[in-house]
Amino acid sequence: MVHGGGIHVGAGSAVFDRAVLQPETHVGTGAVVGALTLIKGGTSVPPGTTVFGTPLVSDLEAASAAQLHEGNTYDKGVTGLVRQEDQAAVVKVRSLLNSSLWAVIWQDLAVLWCIWLLVGFPLVGMLMGLVYGALLLAPSTLAAAVAVLLGVPVVMACYTALQLVVAVVFKWTVIGSFHEGPEYGLGEFKWLLVNALVHAGAKPVLALVDSFAVTRWFYVAMGAKVDAGAAI
């Protein structure tokens, strides 16, 4: 999940499933952001660095003004987010809503319902319309069956394009650029939730298409900068 608004994913880097990058985040060349890891806005992940943690990490505050260092691996341990190569550099972790597990559960439930609302119902409706139109207009049952077989790929292609375009338009017209981040007025959890809902319709489509070019186009259209060779 990549939020639009000043995000740069460097070449050769990898952003894993359900990782969250907030606005003004820079992921350096060859860096890895693990699953279920949330990188706060304004954070720069140096090249070659691996950052991961479960549950969600909503805040990164380096003790004694220590920064994430190039080429190191950070893991959420007992003391928080600790740089494994230098245990003296301890990063404090503040959990989302003091209950990251519940935050993930509520977001997943909301996204699941939105997938049915934004994906299931429209797709079923379009396919039912195709079948009904074929039966109504075709001169015979055989002709109707042929029309349905030929029409399904067309409907799926139109539906795929429609979902991606609607998500992009909705994001920019209703939500904006997300430059405000958690101070958008909805609170940090609601801010993340709204962004998850925007992606609910597009996520199944992107998974179905399974094309990096399409996925890259979508996130670039949402406001992120994705270099060639990055894995999203």
List the helices and strands and how they pair.
Blueprint: E1 7-9, E2 14-15, E3 20-21, E4 26-27, E5 32-33, E6 38-39, E7 44-45, E8 50-52, E9 57-62, E10 73-77, E11 80-83, E12 90-95, H1 100-137, H2 141-175, H3 187-200, H4 202-209, H5 212-221, E13 224-226
Parallel strand pairs: 1-4, 1-13, 2-5, 3-6, 4-7, 5-8, 8-10
Antiparallel strand pairs: 9-12, 10-11, 11-12
**How many β-strand stretches?**
13
**In angstroms, what is the radius of gyration?**
21 Å
Percentage of residues assigned to helices = 40-55%
Structural class: alpha/beta
Spell out the helices and strands N to C: EEEEEEEEEEEEHHHHHE
Please state the average pLDDT score. 67
The strand order across the widest sheet is: 2-5-8-10-11-12-9
Apparent shape = elongated
Number of domains: 2
Terminal-residue CA separation? 9 Å
Helix count, per DSSP? 5
- Spans of 5+ residues with little confidence (pLDDT < 50)? 54-67, 73-99, 180-186
Portion in strands: 15-25%
> Quick one: biggest sheet?
7 strands, mixed
